[in-house]
Amino acid sequence: MFNLEKPEKIVIACLVSLLLIGLGVMWYKKSHPAISVRVESFNIDSKNIDIADLKAKAKININEADLEDLMRLKGVGKVLSGRIIDYRFSNGPFHSIDEIRSVKGVGDALFEKIKDSIRVE
Amino acid sequence: MNPALPMDSFDDSRKGGAKRPILYLAVSFSLGIIFSFHFNIRPFWAILFSACFAMLVLLLSKRRLPSHLSLYLAIFFLGAASYQNSVILPYDHISRFATEEPRKIFIKGVVATDPLTKETFYKQEKASFTVNANSYNEGNGWKNIEGLVNVDLYAGKGKTVSFGDELILEGLISRPASLKNPGLFNYSRYLEIKGVYAHLKVREDMVFEISGKGSGNHLKLAAYNFRHYIRDTLDKYLEAPYSDFLKAILIGVRSGFDDDIKEDFIKTGTVHILAISGLHVGLIAGAILAFFGLLRVPKRYNLIVTAIFLIFYSFVAGSNPPIIRAVIMFSMLVIGYLINRDSDLLNSLSLAALLILLWNPKEIFDPSFQLSFLSVASIILFAPKIDNLLMANTIKRDSVLKRTEAYLLKGISVSLAAWIGTWPIIASYFNIVSPIAVISNLIVIPALFLITVSSFIFFPLTIIPNVIAVMFGKYLSVLERTLFFINHYLALFPFSYFRIGAPSIELALLYYALIVILLLHYPIDLKGLKITKNMSVIFILLLFNMLVWKDNLNIARKYLKVTFLDVGHGDSAVIELPKKGSILIDGGSGGREGRFDVGKAVVAPYLWNKGIFTIDIVLVTHFHEDHLGGIIYILKNFNVGCVIDNGAIPDGNGIYDEYRRAIKEKGIRHVVAGDSDSIALSGETKIFILNPEKGAAPADSNENSIALKLADKNFSVLFCADITARPMERMLDSYGEFLESDIVKVPHHGGRLGSEDSAEKFFKIVSPKVSIISTERSGLYNIAAKKTFDSITYLNSKSYNTSDNGAIEIISDSTRRFNVVTTNKN
Lengths: 121, 826
Hints:
The structure holds two protein chains of two kinds. By secondary structure, chain A is mainly α. Chain A has helices at about 5-30, 50-60, 65-70, 80-90, 110-115; strands spanning about 40, 60, 120.
């Protein structure tokens, strides 16, 4: 099948042995663990949980919230949530949380109740 | 057929100027299908291109090369068009109803396959078959529909369903369920290849009626009756696994065959004998020819009768691509004989491929199609060459010994040829390479021959029940037992088989390029530049070296990757660390006799496929079956650096006992970990164990399962195992804001977490950007407690679950950003 001349023989022999060594290295690597496991101990200074920060994270973004999210607000039902979304739809996003008062049905009393649970982003 | 076709470049296996027009057509058509699959070409353009090139053929008919090229391109685009045609479904196709969410429906249709009945684990009788649906009803009248639907019928109640029955069924329709993991076998995709897009579950309390009988193809009906006769006879005279083995090799019924024996066949590279293929068809053809030959039936009629029986037999055995291929090739041989022309084997092989692909272009993606055609092609092309190398043809057959030697050498060259052509494909589907196949096939195939021929004597004996039939059945069992025994020991030979990762596309292409180079005529003249065979071989070897050494030297895998596998109900996650090393957290369910083992079916193949054979850390969060079960297979089949668990000692947990046994047998380091333990991994990555409390009573419970945080400078994942409200509260107390993580694996498969308040508080502190729920589709736990779900979505966190998304891979490079890749795209 082959007629090999001497230089060709040498080149092919070199390439094949290099390949075999490469495969050997690959096999060795794959059959030995790579990490030596050492167990140490660690300490965390557990700060008291910052309630203010927590609340901020839990606030609802009225520019992205959907019907269900909005209904989670105290005193906001399905109808009002729908109106907030409609408002967003026709007037664009809220610029501040105060702007929610322009939605029909959101009075001062309700705003006082929900202003700490909403945010604008 | 165009007589002036291609510049045939394959050399000495060509005889007497036989042309192979169909080979090139079949290859063009196949490439067209693959192209169309990858690039999703519009059917309109495919047809247009095909037509244009067909016209060019006529216009250029005087010039050889351009006209041939246009012909192949025309066929190529025809293949592309036919693939698109096969995937675009009509509007009233049943797939329209098959969504992930099951819904109730009434279906009318005809049974299109031979029903398979078995008893489920819960002792229910279940019949499985495919129905060709013709109408449906969702409560507002019957409407037309078309398409195949797989039915699991639990409402049989003593009524037997058979092929050709017209049925009215009430059931829950959905997409066929399948675990979806990258690189692994996907059952629902396999069914799509076969044209089945829907699954119907008919529960015990649902409507099931047989409205008519016998509207199926009569030949098929007869074939299935024959099949039942064989099956029942085997069940009567033989015991499992011997009856099951014969069912597999004679009538193609493979379910129920012993898993361990099957694994031995896989290891020795002889598993192909369990699926009926050209080998079996050839054996049967040979036996019939010999039988009628003895009766002195003229060869002409003998051949015709055999061909007709083979067509009948292809129905008995279930008409898979390998069987159809063999029957077509045999028929070509017969036709060639009848019209006094030598039929070229490669040409008939190509015709078989072309016919199957014209019928269903998607078959090209069926592994059994690929293996069948590839192995036969390489036998045709290579075996004569290897014969020459071994000088099998020069042996003078003047003594028994010499004759045996010649047969042995011929056998070696056939099995070596098949192995050379198929191992990359086998490696990518089964992650195994079996050099012993070259030898084991020399033993297993003659044994298969002996067993098949013996069973031809056995069945006529059983017509009248008698002692001889019983004795003969025993003899068959002994034969099989010997075969299993030898095969088992062949698998134990050193270097008989090894596991390898799926070869990359580059590697596979290089390999096949090398093969083609060895087959081509040389030297090739490229406008004065002469290329010799040796030059090409050196070039390919250089490329091989580059690939291997690139992988060896470039050890710095820069990213951290966490994969949450789709294991049904249960947990399993693989972590690939930056630079080096890998960790497995839990292994899904398994470890129980006769039940689905996730470790064997999902986790191990997934790791092998990625080329991972050594796991640095196997961490078991707790010892419940849905977390520990699959681990057993992993411990037995991988190099494991160390095992970490919570140190609990559960009572009466058989899987746990086996787990401890495996650790002991393999001498694996065993570490017990609890809160405030940390483990440094490669680079800056660390594991922080957050639960269970150290020194607490080591009861095995969800409460004591190991929760941990995997973190580096920029990225963190919180694995919550099955923790409940109490540990959550405790972790909040001791770790506070340290719990904050980018990703959270939601505790307990998204189920209820005890106190909803603590869960809500917990998730607020963790404030994950992405949350992962590891759960099963229609399982008990699917009702991920609404409150758990809410407390996560409330935080604008994106939620994924393994039942809808399949396996979920999260890749973090060294920046703060990470990518989420899901396996199920639709």
